[in-house]
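note to self: dont lose this again. the chain is below, predicted strucutre after it. 323 aa total, dont forget to put it in the shared folder this time
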Amino acid sequence: MAREPSAGGPGGAGAGTPPHRYRSDDEDSGRWRGFPHRPGDVVVSTRSKSGTTWAQMICALLVFQTPDLPAPLAEISPWLDWMGEPRAEVFDRLAAQPHRRFIKTHTPLDGIALDPRVTYLVMGRHPLDMAVSLYHQGDNIDRARQRRLTGQPEPEAPAAPGPARPALREWLRGWTEWDPDPRRFPDSLPGVLHHLADAWDRVGRAAEGGPVVVLLHYDELQADLEGAMRRLAGVLGMAVAEATWPELVAAARLPAMRARAGELAPDTGGILRSPAAFFRRGSSGAGREVLSEGELARYHRRVATMGPPGLLAWLHGEVERRP
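---
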C-alpha cells in the first residue's frame, strides 16, 4: 500500500476530542452523528476529485466479486454528508444492506467519530491535478437543481451578470495562492493538505486500539491497478479467487468506468449535466501542464509549509511507493 496501514487513535481528532463539524451549503458532517456502524464497514474519505468514485468502485468489486453491481454505485455506497437525501432514508438503506458496507464521505477524519471496527480508506492525489478536475467539474453541476435538493433558498431575483469565470491557468494560480481556513474551505489547497496530513499522522502512529487507516494514492492505481487492488483486499481481509481477478481489474479501469457513467457517476438526484463528463480525463499531470516553471516553483515553496516532508514527497510522486 502507498503507506502501511496502522491503527489511529480513537475519536475523530484524538481520544476525548469531539469531531470538528464541517458544513457547507450542501454538506454537513453532523449527519454522521449516531450512525450505527457494523464491524467491517469501510469509510472512503477523500477530497473532491481525488479518486472517490474509483475507490468506491474498487470496494464494490471486492465486496461483490463481479462487475455486475446490484444497484447504481451511489445507491450502494451513499455520500452520507450530502444533504440532498433525507438522512433517515440513507441510514435505513444502509441498515438494510446485507453485504459488507462501504460509505462515501468528503469529511476529513477529524470530523468523524472514528470506530475501531471500521477501516478508513483515504485517497490522495497531486493537489494540482485535483484542482484542475475541480475546475472542470464546476461546469458540470446543475446548481439550480442542487439548491432545490439540498434545501438552499432560491435567489430572490436573477443575479446580475458577473465577471466571466477566469481561464484555467489564472484560476489555478489563484487557487494555489489562496490562504483560507482549511476547515471552512476543505477543497482549498490548505484544506487538501489538512485532510491528508491528518490521515498521514494517524497512519504513522503506533497502534492505539483505534481503527485501521489506509492511505492510497491516485497514481498508484494508475501505475499498478491490480497490485493496489490485491493489497487493499489483503488489508480488508477479502479473499478473491485467482480466476476472478482479471474481470475485476478490467472493470475498475477508468475507460471501463467511463463507459458505465450512468451507473457509476455520483449523480444522485440528477445534479450532473453529463455523467460521462464526470470521468473527464482521469490521468495525472494536468496541473503541471498548465503552470509555468516559476509558478510551479512558487506552488512547491508554499505547499512545503503545509505538511510533513514525507507526506509531500508521497503526494507529489517523489518517492517510490511502499510495497
